[in-house]
Design goal:
The chain is mostly helical and 253 residues long. It has one domain (3-252). The chain is 80% helix and 0% strand. Helix 3 (41-62) runs parallel beside helix 9 and helix 5 packs across helix 8.
Amino acid sequence: MGLGEIILLFCGGLMAGIINVIVGGAGFMTFPLLMAAGMTEIEANASNFVAVLPANLVGTYLYRQELKSVQKHLGLRLVMAATGGLIGSLILTLTGQASFQTAVPWLLLFATTSFALGPRVKAKIETYPHFERSQWAWLQLTLEFCVYIYSGYFGLGMGIILFAIYGIFSQMTLHQGNAVRNITTSLSSLVAIAIFIHSGLIRWVPSLIMMAGAVAGGFIAVRIAKRLPAAWVRLAILIWASGLTGLAFYRYF
C-alpha cells in the first residue's frame, strides 16, 4: 500500500467521522474508498464496519444526554439491533461475493431513496387529521428490525433509513434520533464484525487506517455537530449518494 492510498483512506475516514456524528451516511464515502484500495465489494463492505465503528461509538458518547430522553423501547431496540446484525451478517457470509455484487446497486438505490423521500413522507402523513403515531409503534419497531438485518448485511445507509422511519413514526428531534441511531448502529456493527472476523472477510490494515481518521473526525465533530445546519449536510450527502448509486448501476449493469 502506497503513501497516496494511506492518505486517501485516512482523509476519507476523517470526513466520515465528522459526517457520521452529524447526520449519518458516512458509508457512502468510505465504501468506495475501500474498494479503491483494491478490495472486492464484499471485503470493502466487511472492512467498512470496522472503519466507521469508532465514529458510531463517539456519536453514542456525544449524544448520551439526548439518549436519556428516549428510553422508551430502547432495551427492545438494542436486542433487535444485536439480533438483526447477526442475521444480516450471516446472510452475507453464506451467500458470498457474487450475490452481494449483484445486490450493491439496488442496496444503494434503496438507501438513497429512503434518505431523499423520508421528510416528504413524514410531511404528507402529518396532514392526515386522524394519524396517531402511538398506534403505529408496532410497525415502526418491525421496520427498524428489518433495517437492523439490512445493516448486518450491508450497513451503508442504515442511519439514513432509520432517520426516515423516525421522521414518519415518531416525534424525536434530530439529536434524539442521532442518539438512538448511534447506539443501535454500534451494537449491530459489533455483532456483524465478530461474524466477519470469523469468516476472514476483513482487510485489517486499510480498515485501521480509515478507522484512525474516523476517530479524529468524530472528535472534530464535537465542536460542530450541534451547530452546523443539518439541512446542508443532508443535501451534500444526498448529492454524493445519488452519484454513487448511478456509478454502481453503470458499473454492474
